[in-house]
Each structure stands twice: as C-alpha cells, then as structure tokens.
Design brief:
This protein is an alpha+beta fold and 403 residues long. It has 21 helices and 9 strands. It comes from Pseudomonas putida.
C-alpha cells in the first residue's frame, strides 16, 4: 500500500478527482457544509455505498442534509451521545481501494482555508487497514439514522437557534491578570462566594452604602420594567437613571442616586437628559431588558448614543454611556467613572487611561463573561439573588475609591 501526504491545498483537488474516477465510494464525516467536493459528490451520488454525516455541535449545514436526504445511501448521526468525529473518504475501482483520511471535514473551510493535514492510502482488498476502514464506514452507517423530514425539521430549528453559540466558539477574549498584585480583588479569580464577600465588605463602607446601592438598582429596574421609552419618563426619573439628579435630590432617605457614577458634571449630557432625551432613549432601546446582551447590541447602542449628541459640540464618553447601560442592565454592565476607573481597570489588567467606549466591551465585558462569579447561576436565596441581578454594576462597590 502506498501512502502519500496531502497538504490542505491538495486535498480538495484529490477528492474531486477520486469522485470523478471511482466506481463506488464510502464516506463518514463529522461535519459537512456546501463546498466543491460535496458538489462533485452529489453529481456522482449514485456511486455512494455509504454516506454518513455527523451533526454534533450543530456545525453541519441543514442544506447539506436536505440534499443528502434524497440518497438511499445517506444517513445522519444525531447531535447526542458520544462525539462522532471521523473524516474517512474511501473509493473503489475493482480490487483497488484508495482512501483519504486525516483532519479535513467535508466543509468549505476545511477544503479552502483551514490548516489541515491528511494522507492518501492507495492499495487493494489485500490491505487489511483499507478493509477495516471500509468496514468502519459500513458499521457507522448501520448505527446512524435515516435523514427523515422529522429530523430535518428538528435540526434546522435548533441549528438556527445555536448560531450565536457557534460564533462564541471562535472568540478568544483578551483576559489579563491584574496589572498590579492584588489577588484578593482580582475579578478573574473570584468565585461567587469571594464576590459576595468583596461586594458586601468594601474597604470604604461609608462610601459604598451597600443597601443604598441595591435601592438604586431596584428603582431603575422598576422604571425600565414599565416598558415606557426613556424619553417619555418624567424629567426627574430620567435624571435619576442618568446620574444627573443633583446632590440634594440624589440623597434621599435610604438611597443615594449618585451611586454608580454621578454624571452631573457632564453638562452636555445633563442637558440632553432634560431637553432632548430622544437620542439617548433610542440608544437604550438597542439593549434588551432580559436575556443575553451581545456585542452587536452594544455596538448599536454606542452608535446611537454618539448620534444623540451635537457632533459639533461635546460628545458623551465612557462614564455617561456606561452609567445608562449599568442602570438598564446591571447584570451585564458596570459604569466606569473617575472614582473607580483606576482600581477597576488595573484589576482587569488594562490601562485606565486608554480604556474607552470603543474597547470597553473587549477589555471589561467580554473577559467578565468568563469569570466564575459572573457565570454563577441565579441563587435561590432572595438576598443573594438581588445581588446577582446587579452583579456587574456592583463591581463599583468593590473598586470605588472615594475622592
């Protein structure tokens, strides 16, 4: 038996040539998407003895399964149980057997741009390894299922629903250790229990006012829960959420609405909140009140937030933008202002001076999504659950430094 190494660039052309020149073929692949090799195989689909396609991790395109369903030789491995992960392409011409095995799946990426490696085995029925490979594909086919209308309906529905999850798998967040040694408060090392201790027992209790913080989040949650657009709230409620209420009005019995970032010094922003809140309201509408908040949601928010300002004047920045975000989704965002910027950024391992609205998601939010305290399921205990609902915004209670 001859063995030949195939580079990524050689695999596609080799497989297409084998499809065109063989008498029959047996394939077992983990994933499949529409590509040149698949198209060649479908043109000569009568040559298939067995064609087995896996669907684990929902990488296989429903369109491939729909087209393969017309073939009596095609079968599917459902996305349950042990991972089905072979890549075997076997071809027969009389006594001669050729087989490509290696890393490439039957996908466009594998055949065109991925870093892949495979070998072409060229032998005959006298070669035990080739006979075993043929038997392997046949056994996989026997253990697989018909590509039924019912399966296609279920798979297509769930394939679409898992699009966001597939995109997350190719992201590699820029998670960094603290820029200064301070392991007690390093966010990426905190468990949920550690987080609770930190958020409830700051080093500056007079400035952190834990119960008052929860009161602010409760009030903001109630305002957004009405479903009334921000622009249509009364003026004081808009100012309350924006952090521009003013010291006297902010400090009310049992609550201080200046917590989580007082924005009164930002005159342009404060005037917008009072006189022209429609643009800010439009920006907030891009952030869902429940469920996951995506980077696309954030990017749309930022674009609309900037557009709310007179472009010839001062434009809102990180503090004002994140104050609004933290009030609408305190589970997802933390306000960064002059009082917490240094400590918070250093504990996230990023520069305080260069962290801005453009990189806030990559530097703070995306790394936070991997933190154990943030990923912790909602507690059944009511007091802890209240903290959990505001767990991102409450980072301010840990990293706030009184001025």
């Amino acid at each position: 038996m001859d063995v030949k190494f195939l580079s990524a660039s050689q695999t596609q052309s080799t497989l297409i040539a084998l499809v065109e020149n063989c008498e029959s073929m047996q394939w077992a692949v983990a994933w499949a998407t529409e590509n040149a090799v698949f198209e060649a195989a479908m043109k000569d689909s009568s040559k298939f003895e067995h064609f087995v396609v896996g669907t684990h991790m929902f990488q296989t395109q429903p369109e491939v399964l729909e087209r393969a369903a017309a073939l009596a030789a095609a079968a599917v491995v459902p996305p349950t149980g042990d991972l089905f992960h072979p890549k075997v392409y076997l071809f027969r011409n009389g006594q001669r057997i050729r087989c490509v095995v290696g890393s490439p799946n039957l996908t466009k990426a594998a055949m065109s741009r991925n870093v892949e490696a495979s070998v072409l085995l060229d032998g005959s029925l006298d070669d035990a390894a080739l006979v075993e490979l043929s038997r392997f594909v046949a056994e996989a086919w026997k253990g697989a299922e018909d590509i039924s209308h019912e399966f296609l309906f279920r798979y297509r529905h769930q394939y679409a629903a898992k699009t966001a999850a597939r995109k997350e798998l190719i992201k590699f967040a820029d998670v960094r250790p603290p820029s200064k040694p301070n392991t007690k408060r390093a966010p990426h090392d905190m468990s949920w229990a550690d987080y609770l201790v930190q958020v409830r027992s700051s080093s500056h209790p007079s400035a952190h006012l834990f119960k008052e913080r929860l009161g602010v989040l409760t009030k903001a949650r109630a305002l957004f829960a009405t479903g009334i657009p921000y622009a249509k709230w009364n003026k004081d409620d808009r100012k309350l959420v924006a952090g521009t209420l003013g010291r006297k009005k902010s400090q009310q019995p049992g609550v201080d609405y200046g917590l989580f970032g007082s924005m009164g010094a930002s005159g342009t922003f404060a005037n917008l909140v009072i006189e022209a809140p429609t643009g800010l309201s439009h920006a907030l509408d891009f952030i869902p009140l429940m469920g996951a908040v995506t980077q696309d949601d954030y990017d749309r928010y930022c674009k609309a937030f900037r557009a709310a300002f007179d472009q010839d004047g001062r434009v809102g920045g990180l503090p004002t933008a994140t104050r609004l975000l933290a009030m609408k989704r305190p589970d997802a965002f933390v306000c960064i202002d002059s009082a917490n910027r240094k400590d918070l950024c250093e504990n996230f391992g990023v520069s305080p001076s260069t962290t801005n609205l453009e990189n806030y998601w990559q530097r703070i939010i995306e790394p936070m999504h991997g933190d154990p305290w943030w990923r912790h399921p909602q507690p059944s205990n009511a007091a802890d659950a209240e903290i959990w609902l505001g767990r991102a915004a409450l980072l301010d209670a840990i990293y706030y430094t009184p001025r």
